[in-house]
């Protein structure tokens, strides 16, 4: 997925990179016993970041989120002999929403393993308890280009705006079950609407080979903003939600509606070359370019364009190279379907 400035924490775009989770409850490993595997779950993983993803189901973000959903429904473990295979092509810590996708995948996994039949609207509540960025999770769950908001929180919930997983799913070291009931999400925490997306616009993602953790990229943001900067963003955001559906797209209008003053300038210190890239790659310098922004919390750059995708990517890659940073790049399209479930009958 990802986010389009100036819609920080508000608008999200699901893009065509798909986290796949396969689950079977058939015995796949005869050496797995309930005593060595108290959560009844084994994980295998393929894709990016396989050296860093924790395959202990008590720690892995996907299975831990699934356990949160299960425990809120009085199911302490996965069904016997659950095997979860994760195939993840979404680079980690690059602002492409790997954690949002993992959390949404986790709530769906809990829904299926527990036979809970929760609707997506309720799964959104659970996902927002773990990752409180509605732009990310609503786009991953529902697909497409979405606008979102969270309910106003009471003072107690406000104090825990970034709800750590440890609080949502209490768990001592070692993963043994405390028997504690985690906090069940209130109903309808988040709200969203889908906007139309111009058929001509594609997203060129330029992905630097270093990570910026979302938590770190939020720590550098100020606690409050000037009225001038807030009005600057709100004025552009109001137009942006509509101009991205125009056919044909208007490059100058999109480019100016994608300017931001509330997150990108502050994150520039974490991403060498960011300010210059955002200022120098324009519809005038690159025909076909319509807009450019940080993807999520970065460091990925997202260029929205109708043509010249390779040329645009080459320019940005060359600028990062001057900073000693190598990049990968992809042409992505909106993913309209959101999270889907396919049942494969026993063979
Ligand atoms: N498929 C996955 N399985 C397990 N954990 C994941 C997965 N994808 C992401 N994560 C966790 O999320 C972290 C990245 O989250 P974050 O810093 O928010 O960056 P991003 O911009 O990629 O969402 C990873 O380091 C990992 O701990
Ligand atoms: N709106 C959030 C989005 C974070 O997304 P991620 O993919 O970087 O985790 C923000 O900009 O902090």
TrEMBL record:
Q: Which Pfam families match?
A: GHMP_kinases_N
Q: What class of enzyme is it?
A: transferase
Q: Name one GO molecular function term.
A: homoserine kinase activity
- Can you supply a Gene Ontology BP term from the record? sterol biosynthetic process
Q: Which residue ranges does the record assign to the GHMP kinase N-terminal domain? A: 60-144
What pathway is this protein a component of? Amino-acid biosynthesis; L-threonine biosynthesis; L-threonine from L-aspartate: step 4/5
The keyword Amino-acid biosynthesis belongs to this UniProt entry's keyword annotation: yes
Is this entry keyworded Zinc?
A: no
Keyword terms of this UniProt record: Amino-acid biosynthesis, ATP-binding, Kinase, Lipid biosynthesis, Lipid metabolism, Nucleotide-binding, Steroid biosynthesis, Steroid metabolism, Sterol biosynthesis, Sterol metabolism, Threonine biosynthesis, Transferase
Task: Read off the InterPro entries from this record.
Answer: GHMP_kinase_C_sf (IPR036554), GHMP_kinase_N_dom (IPR006204), GHMP_knse_ATP-bd_CS (IPR006203), Homoserine_kinase (IPR000870), Ribosomal_Su5_D2-typ_SF (IPR020568), Ribsml_uS5_D2-typ_fold_subgr (IPR014721)
Please give the catalytic activity noted in the UniProt record: L-homoserine + ATP = O-phospho-L-homoserine + ADP + H(+)
- EC assignment: the record states 2.7.1.39
Entry superkingdom: Eukaryota
Q: Which family does the UniProt entry place this protein in?
A: Belongs to the GHMP kinase family. Homoserine kinase subfamily.
What is the protein name stated in its UniProt record? Homoserine kinase
State the species of origin.
Lithohypha guttulata
Source taxonomy: Eukaryota, Fungi, Dikarya, Ascomycota, Pezizomycotina
């Amino acid at each position: 997925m990802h986010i389009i400035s100036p819609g920080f924490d508000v608008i999200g775009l699901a893009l065509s990179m798909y986290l796949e989770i396969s689950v079977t409850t058939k015995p796949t490993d005869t050496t797995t016993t309930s005593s060595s595997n108290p959560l009844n779950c084994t994980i295998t993983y393929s894709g990016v970041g396989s050296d860093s993803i924790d395959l202990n189901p008590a720690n892995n973000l996907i299975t831990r989120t699934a356990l949160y959903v299960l425990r809120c429904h009085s199911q302490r473990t996965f069904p016997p002999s659950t095997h979860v295979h994760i195939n993840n092509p979404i680079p980690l810590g690059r602002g492409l929403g790997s954690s949002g996708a993992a959390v949404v995948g986790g709530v769906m996994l809990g829904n299926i393993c527990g036979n809970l039949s929760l609707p997506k609207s309720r799964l959104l509540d659970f996902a927002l308890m773990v990752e409180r960025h509605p732009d990310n999770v609503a786009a991953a769950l529902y697909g497409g280009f979405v606008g979102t908001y969270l309910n106003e929180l009471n003072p107690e919930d406000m104090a825990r705006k970034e709800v750590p997983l440890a609080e949502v799913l209490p768990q001592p070291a070692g993963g043994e079950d405390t028997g504690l009931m985690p906090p069940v999400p209130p109903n309808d925490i988040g709200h969203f609407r889908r906007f139309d997306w111009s058929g001509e616009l594609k997203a060129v993602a330029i992905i630097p080979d270093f990570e910026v953790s979302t938590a770190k990229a939020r720590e550098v943001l100020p606690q409050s903003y000037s009225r001038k900067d807030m009005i600057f963003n709100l004025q552009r955001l109001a137009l942006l939600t509509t101009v991205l559906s125009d056919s044909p797209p208007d490059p100058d209008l999109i480019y100016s509606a994608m300017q931001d003053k509330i997150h990108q300038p502050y994150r520039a210190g974490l991403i060498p070359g960011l300010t210059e890239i955002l200022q120098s790659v324009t519809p005038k310098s690159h025909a076909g370019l319509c807009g450019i922004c940080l993807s999520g919390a970065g460091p990925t750059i997202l260029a929205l364009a109708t043509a010249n995708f390779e040329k645009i990517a080459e320019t940005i890659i060359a600028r990062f190279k001057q900073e000693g940073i190598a990049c990968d790049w992809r042409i992505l399209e909106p993913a309209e379907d959101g999270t889907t479930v396919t049942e494969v009958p026993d063979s």
